[in-house]
Amino acid sequence: MDLQTTTYLFVGASFALYLGIAFWARAGSTSEFYVAGGGVHPVTNGMATAADWMSAASFISMAGLISNMGYGGAVFLMGWTGGYVLLAMLLAPYLRKFGKFTVPEFIGDRFYSKTARNVAVLCLLVASLTYIIGQMTGVGVTFARFLGVSSAQGIYIGMAIVFAYAVFGGMKGITYTQVAQYIVLILAYLVPAFFISLNLTGNFLPQLGLGSDMAGTDVSLLSKLDQVVTDLGFGQYTTTAAGSTLNMFFYTVSLMIGTAGLPHVIVRFFTVPKVSDARLSAGWALVFIALLYTTAPAVGAMAKLNLHGTVNTAVGLTKDEDGRISVNSDVVKANGDLYATEASLLYEKRPEWMKRWEKTGLLKWEDKNGDGRIQYYNDKTKSDVVKGKAEAAGWKGNELTVNADIIVLANPEIALLPNWVIALVAAGGLAAALSTAAGLLLAISSAVSHDLIKGAIKPDISEKGELMAGKIAMAVAIFVAGWLGLNPPGFAAGTVALAFGIAASTIFPALMMGIFSRTMSDKGAVAGMLAGLFVTLFYVFAHKGIFFIKGTEYLDVVGGANGFFTITPEAFGTVGAIVNFGVAFLVNKMSPPAPKHIQELVESVRVPRGAGAATGH
């Protein structure tokens, strides 16, 4: 069966499964729509949480980032997984015990203020909308590559699928759909990794294969990769950091506390029956996430080696008798000349996967020296040795441009794996993007219908009316998300980091102070959230442009690019959180403390006793 037909079958079957589950688990009340009735098993919730959080960024982009950055990519592994430890220990059980539907509702009630609730809604909407752009764009790219439609048509199809199971199923439908999506995405991630690790190292477990010798040699995979990339002018794979040490630290912290403050993840812990189940859910989520996150470094490293081995025969990779990439042990041991003329792949003999990805525009080749061969190296290197070798070989600059986002999707194709594995990866990429998009849309919907309409505009709205308002809000949000995906501002690469930065600098501090500070007042919380939001956006806009409009940057105001102690805008959420805490406590000192009944409420939330069902009032 050809690749296109196989892909249609896999993706079509997965979509039929999602829609069938949504019809079976459709929501009939506000409780089921917002928190799945509060009766989800911790293991089920952990799996759904893993799918909700492991977005297109985790499935499609993270291994690509690690492949490009090497050791520096560890900020994503440590930051995103570390955030779940914070969530499990510091937030999830207390928020579940409070027993509310949404994060803004907790903030509004804890800080006895509609203003605080509305500011939390604003922060939630900004963070969620920026996050969702990447999901819809990922859906478009995946459809465009694997189903032979345009990116725009892919987004339309994605919108229709999400509309069908999210609007009618609410949190109940989304929860069980996300369980199915987790199974699809984790199989899609692990199966190719098993094949590739076995081919390159003889060890089918990629976590062990990453530290193993290449098959038939005494040369470790990582040392070979280091040798190849440094010889070609790239940074050493196993040591290159993400900017300065301070920036790497701040980047990691921003991702950690941003993860703990993401509203669409937090709301999942309102869906379990008991407080203890909230902590168990976070633990199970970490287990399910670890399956992907411990595999990602191996996927990134092996994909990078496979890519170099495809375009340069001196790396030592070849095709086995089944047509898959395997190790030529003699070439690996010989450390051949990467700059030899015959080592560079002739463009006319490029594999089929390169031809397919060229059509998407995410893989480009430009013959700068007119020899008809592909030269892939770092022409911006400062190494005189590399420059000398390139000049002697007649190379006129790097000729291959590879978008980091294609690494996971193209990995099974690069390794020449069977068509069914490639089709499975297509289904997994769509599952990752759609599951997170659904969670974000529900967070947006509940913020509008429950926190704005019921909480501020029309408190006496009926349950039926609120449920309808929630579905309408979600439908509108889907169209907005689709439009953003069709017309992404020129900042797609920074949207996910920005979303984490906003959550880190606004929502996380408010939740922490709401739980662990008895006397924190409404004025302190509101001032802190607004200050954190302002300084984070101010620094980001300085680099990216006001509202991300090119030409409106004002880098001179912040001391140039990364002018604040070398901190990049993607890592600035940590600074925003520090400002939030500082302003909140300063304003709190100058205003009356929280009323006595609020202080007693905070004490009761922290006492380790059971909790009743989640309530909307």
Query: What structural class results from the helix and strand content?
Result: mainly alpha
Beta-strand proportion: under 5%
Calculate the terminal CA-CA distance, rounded to whole Å. Answer: 56 Å
Order of strands across the widest beta sheet? 1-2
What letter string, H or E per element, gives the SSE order?
HHHHHHHHHHHHHHEEHHEHEHHHHHHH
Architecture overview:
The chain is mostly helical and 617 residues long. It contains 24 helices and 4 strands. The protein has helices at residues 3-24, 30-35, 42-53, 56-69, 74-98, 103-110, 114-146, 151-201, 206-209, 221-231, 245-260, 263-266, 275-293, 296-311, 329-334, 352-358, 384-392, 407-414, 419-457, 463-486, 492-516, 522-544, 573-589, 596-606, and strands at residues 317-319, 325-327, 363-365, 400-402. The strands form 2 sheets. Strands 1-2 form a two-stranded antiparallel sheet. It has a two-stranded antiparallel ribbon with strand order 3-4. A hairpin with a 5-residue loop joins β1 and β2 (325-327). α5 (74-98) packs parallel to α11 and α14 packs across α18. It is globular.
Descriptors:
mainly alpha; 24 helices; two-stranded antiparallel ribbon; 617 residues
What topology emerges from the helices and strands here?
Layout: H1 3-24, H2 30-35, H3 42-53, H4 56-69, H5 74-98, H6 103-110, H7 114-146, H8 151-201, H9 206-209, H10 221-231, H11 245-260, H12 263-266, H13 275-293, H14 296-311, E1 317-319, E2 325-327, H15 329-334, H16 352-358, E3 363-365, H17 384-392, E4 400-402, H18 407-414, H19 419-457, H20 463-486, H21 492-516, H22 522-544, H23 573-589, H24 596-606
Antiparallel strand pairs: 1-2, 3-4
Helix pairs in contact: 1-8, 1-19, 3-8, 3-13, 4-14, 4-19, 5-11, 5-13, 6-7, 6-21, 7-8, 7-19, 7-20, 7-21, 7-22, 8-19, 8-20, 10-14, 11-21, 11-23, 14-18, 18-19, 19-20, 21-22, 21-23, 22-23
